[in-house]
Every structure is written in C-alpha cells, then in structure tokens.
Amino acid sequence: MKFVRYQDGAGQARYGVLDGETVHAADGDPFAGGLTAGSAVGALGELTLLPPVQPGKIVCVGLNYAAHVTETDATRAVPEEPVLFMKPPSALVGHGAPIAIANPDNRTDHEAELAVVIGRRARGVAAASAADYILGYTAGNDVSDRPLQQKDGQWVRAKGFDTYCPLGPCVATDLDPTAGDGLAVVSRLNGETKQSSTTRDMIFDVPALIAYISGIMTLEPGDVIMTGTPEGVGPMRPGDTIEVEVGGVGVLRNPVTAR
Ligand code: MG
C-alpha cells in the first residue's frame, strides 16, 4: 500500500491511500490498525501534499555510499561505524513545497536518500528482526549548505534550515531495499539526472542501521531515518526544480526558491 497526507478543503491534514496517481480519502491510522480507502479525492498532482508522516525525530546517516565518501574528500576513509546526525522536524516539507535557500551565495546541495519510516517502538533491535519495526519507505532530500557544514564542524545549522528536509510524496509499505537489485535512488535537477544508484550500494544497510541506531536511542512510530546519499550531489539554485526518485515509492519534486 502507498499512503499520503494531504490538506483537505477545510485545511485539515488527512491521510489518503494512493492508487496509481489517484488519492482516496482514508480512515484509520497507518500506525495502529491500518488505513481504509474511501472515495477518490483527486490526483496526486492536484492536492496539497504534506510530509507523509510527522516524526518526533529525523535521524540521518552521513557517508553511507562509498563513492559519495570519496567525492566529498578523495582521501577520506569509508566509516567503520555509521555516521549519525539529526535534522529537526521543522525542516520538513512535502512534495511540491518550495525549498527556500537560506544562503544563496553558499553552495547548497541536493542529496537524494531512501527514508525509512519506523512503525513501532524500537529499542535494542537486532538486525535480523529490524523489518518488524518498519512501517515503510519514502523519498527524502537532505538539503545541505556546504560552506556552513565545513565551517561548523557539525551539521545542525547546515542541514537544519526550514524546508531543508523534503519528504514524500508517499510512504510505500511493501518494499525491501535489501532484496534483489535494491531500490533505485535517483535525483534529477531540472530534468537532468545527477545521482543514480541503488540501495545495494549502501555501506550499512537498513537492518544494520536500525540495529545501530536503536542501540543508542529509542525509535518511536513515525520517526524517520535518512539513510545517506549516493555520489553525484550538486548545487541547487532559486528557479531550479529538484526531483528525488526512490524505486517503488515515486518522485518527490520540489521547486527551489530564495528565502
Ligand atoms: Mg545526507
């Protein structure tokens, strides 16, 4: 199943079930008992979409694709443990909402990422049972102000501005990024492909990440794990359109504006 969150005519946030490009109003709770699809309310492109979940925390993994590690610094070694940081929930925007560049003079990059949505409380979970704690997957863009990332030595400011965490368009519940050839992770800037990899190229796969992170902090339903970006990151500027596509999820598209 794929579900979205959208704003209805009264301005209320509602869940919807996605069938092809058509959104159906849905009753229920995806985290408790599931969603039941009702009547069609419109096409995906016609609705105001919200981030598909409301995480209490967004845990992010840096340097999780070997070719991206070396593009950031040719002499940098592949990490021996996952590199973690966090983005604030205030950075979230949904499909179609603008990314407002805070510092137009600073190189501000797109980072296409598979995002994991936690389905139930996870604490000290073994990798072998990690799948039991996952509700589904969505697409994320870990927008990053490179000069501030270098200057600050940690990444809270560089990656924490409002709108610097687009997420969506939907959560897909029936995917396995560790199976077969994995899931495609792609970005396109103004229609031109910039990143094109798969989840098979992750250094630490999703079960390993859930085991590692849940050994540090309790993960709650709705929490999001951004799993890192493959090589090909590059700058976005006001006027651009950036797309992040994750296989089996769909395309997260956001216009880029100045703040
Ligand atoms: Mg990233």
UniProtKB/TrEMBL annotation:
SUPFAM superfamilies: FAH. Coiled coil: none annotated. Keywords: Hydrolase, Metal-binding. Residues 57-256 form the Fumarylacetoacetase-like C-terminal domain. The keyword Hydrolase applies. Residues 1-52 form the Rv2993c-like N-terminal domain. InterPro entries: Fumarylacetoacetase-like_C, Fumarylacetoacetase_C_sf, Rv2993c-like_N. The keyword Hydrolase applies. One of its GO terms (molecular function) is acetylpyruvate hydrolase activity. One of its GO terms (biological process) is carboxylic acid metabolic process. Belongs to the FAH family. This is Fumarylacetoacetate hydrolase family protein. It comes from uncultured Thermomicrobiales bacterium.
